[in-house]
Amino acid sequence: MPAKPIHLAAHFPGVNNTTVWSDPASGSQIDFASFVHLARTAERGKFDFFFLAEGLRLRELKGRIHDLDVAGRPESLTVLAALSSVTTHLGLAATVNSTFNEPYEVAGRLATLDHLSGGRAAWNVVTSWDAFTGENFRRGGYLAEADRYNRATEFLHTARELWDSWAPGDLVADPVTGEFARPGSGAFAHHGQQFDITGHFDVPRGPQGHPVIIQAGDSPQGRDFAAADADVIFSRHGALEDARAFYKDVKSRLARHGRRPDELKIMPAVTYVLGDTEEDAAERAADIRRRQVGPQTAIAYLEGYWGRDLSAYDPDGPLPDIEPDLGEGVSQGRAQFRGDRAETVHTWQALAAERGLTIRELVIEATGRQAFIGTPQSVADQIDTFVQTDAADGFVFVPHLTPGGLDDLVEHVVPLLQEKGVFRADYTGPTLRDHLGLGKAS
């Protein structure tokens, strides 16, 4: 059996503790030059797409703006439209919320990006669960969490109806007037539980038919949504066995929606650290993690789970000896703090006791995503092993430096994957659907 092709993508680091701000090589997350550098690096490496996240409100901690991760967040589609003029093949993926937008507006913006880029647009469909974010919008907090995927599903289906309202094909002459038009030419009518709209869509069908759809939810509803409607899953499952279980589960859901396993690409978010030797790479990785999780960050993260002010505790000392306050909490705008905090706290207490971890060491352990660490050859081998053993179809790399964090990967690891014959030597088509092997949407 031939080796599976590997898919690679780049994620521009957003507002979080991924970026090592103190590094002399760390640059702006606002200047357009930073976006250009990372996007062009990804294109030089023949990556499938460049991915931007979305932030609809600045996070807060204990009622104040969380100053450890305030960088601002330029609007994704605007940035990608600008990047379409300085790239030629790289896919351009934007996160756009389905809770606080409308299908007509989003479908038009994405179809426009698809035209501007020559067929390289992608949409990461996300939902918003919290009233805190909703306060920035007129409908703040109105949507129950259980209903968010109902809206997202109908939102996506409505957008597809709008894209399909312009039929593909050549212009057709009216037999009476002789005027030329495309069949359908934008007329639509959608009557559903979430949306009831009629009219004419004003953006002709894009080069891909439909932009590529990305999804990142991990709940049972999210997995079903992806199996039915997504082209790519941006997964958080990076540890090998966990990733294999997720891969198997999601791929098994495709058949009930009449889809083949290869019609959905699963791409976990990962990082990497290279070194001259395995030991050198491990030392560098440990240093990066300690810089990503500084003392203030460690305490702030723990406060999100404990629901208490823990500023009096030593980040390099033991975990707090008090039980968590499971009320409203002290952190706003972080999805990870909305689950079963009591269970998480008790799990961490047991882990810290078993391994003798300090607060900072525990947070480093808890917040780390899958990282490929080693020499260029061993990292290339690790990436290939994941894909060939059905733990992933590829990876979305989230560098720890902006904007040069992918330079070493593209320079030293990608050529080794190309030598293995598991990654493209060049682009074979102009559109993102071509890169992903999906074919044009009908």
Description:
By secondary structure, this protein is of the alpha/beta class. It folds into two domains: 7-169 and 201-272 and 375-436, Alpha-Beta Barrel (TIM Barrel), CATH 3.20.20; 279-367, no CATH class. 37% of the residues lie in helices and 15% in strands. The protein is built from 14 helices and 16 strands. The strands form four sheets. The protein has an eight-stranded parallel beta barrel, surrounded by six helices. α3 packs across α5, α9 (295-306) crosses α11 and α12 (376-388) packs across α13 (407-420). The two termini are 30 Å apart. The model has no long low-confidence stretch (mean pLDDT 89).
Describe how the helices and strands are arranged.
Layout: E1 7-11, H1 32-44, E2 49-52, E3 60-61, E4 64-65, H2 76-83, E5 91-97, H3 103-117, E6 121-126, H4 131-134, H5 148-164, E7 172-173, E8 180-181, E9 187-191, E10 196-200, E11 212-215, H6 220-229, E12 232-235, H7 240-253, E13 265-274, H8 278-292, H9 295-306, E14 331-332, H10 341-355, H11 359-367, E15 371-374, H12 376-388, E16 394-397, H13 407-420, H14 432-436
Parallel strand pairs: 1-2, 1-16, 2-5, 5-6, 6-11, 11-12, 12-13, 13-15, 13-16
Antiparallel strand pairs: 3-4, 3-14, 7-8, 9-10
